[in-house]
Amino acid sequence: MHLDVPWWGAIIVATVALRLLLISVPVMSQRLQAKQSKYKNELADYRDRMDEARKEGNNLLVQQIFLEQRDFMKSKDIRLGRQFVVLAANGAVFMTQFFAIKEMCKVGYPGLSTGGSLWFTDLTACDPYYLLPFISAATMAMVARVGIEGGANPETMPPLMRLGMLYGLPIAVFAFGSQFSSAMCVYWCTSNGMSLVYAAAFRNAAIRKFFNVPELVKHPMNPNQKNVFAEVLEKWRENKTNQPTISSLKADDMQRFKKAGRGKPVIKG
């Protein structure tokens, strides 16, 4: 590097600069989260109604409720499609830098093998103490909880998806991070750290006002709220003990009808 910046510092500076250039992503995510918090009860009602319709096997009703929800979200300017496009673009930038660093480590780019610091002096090698993968996983867990990137509060997600986001994703990050080079882990830690900085910044009312982000609507906590593991277990038990669906009843009736048609006629003497 011409500025005599070590490679670990260059990775951090480049990552911070990119995240600052893409500040529109957390801004849009926070706006979406604010709108969803405002209509949390209504959105939860749609989700519960669709769950009940699915349990009954009434696909027509599921579609009807889905269309109602879509019209409701459109009327409240909750546009998930627009958010998806922004997140996809942000993800493309993330993956581009991620794979660029990976390829540089793979070919042994000059200076990377000695451009580390502290215990990870060789950026092309894996962290021998697994500290960087652990930090990556821990920060990812915190990012998932605050929902700064996706604009969705984990509490509004279905139980299984929430379990995957809060626990499955960090475990996967640690598992993969332990196989990645230290340079890639430095990048990952920095990116997650910037997400947490944004999350902390958007707790400030002045910053939210500057970026035209509405305040989050705080709903009272449900004293009977179960933890995510209990909710997933309860859902699994419900699926095992579900009442027969309309589709299954129709299928059973059809089977009985076919069997009756193949039976021998009764001849009265």
Short description:
The protein is mostly helical and 269 residues long. Helix content is 67%, strand content 0%.
Keywords:
membrane; mainly alpha; YidC/Oxa/ALB_C; mitochondrion; coiled coil; transmembrane
Strand runs, count? 0
Overall 3D form: globular
Q: State the helical fraction.
A: 55-70%
Span between termini? 105 Å
Percent range for β-strand residues: under 5%
What's the pLDDT, averaged over the residues?
79
| C-alpha-based Rg, rounded | 26 Å
Biggest sheet statistics: none
User: How many DSSP helices?
Assistant: 11
Low-confidence stretches: none
Helix/strand order, N-terminal first? HHHHHHHHHHH
User: What structural class do helix, strand and pairing data support?
Assistant: mainly alpha
Tally of domains: 1
Topology:
Blueprint: H1 7-21, H2 24-38, H3 40-55, H4 59-75, H5 80-106, H6 131-146, H7 159-177, H8 182-201, H9 205-210, H10 228-240, H11 246-262
Helix pairs in contact: 1-8, 2-5, 3-4, 5-8, 6-7, 6-8, 7-10
Would you give an account of this structure?
The chain has 269 residues and is mainly α. It has one domain (7-243). Helices cover 67% and strands 0% of the residues. The protein has 11 helices and no strands. It has helices spanning 7-21, 24-38, 40-55, 59-75, 80-106, 131-146, 159-177, 182-201, 205-210, 228-240, 246-262. Helix 5 (80-106) runs antiparallel to helix 8 (182-201), helix 6 (131-146) runs antiparallel to helix 7 and helix 6 (131-146) runs parallel beside helix 8 (182-201). The radius of gyration is 26 Å and the shape is globular. The N and C termini lie far apart (105 Å).
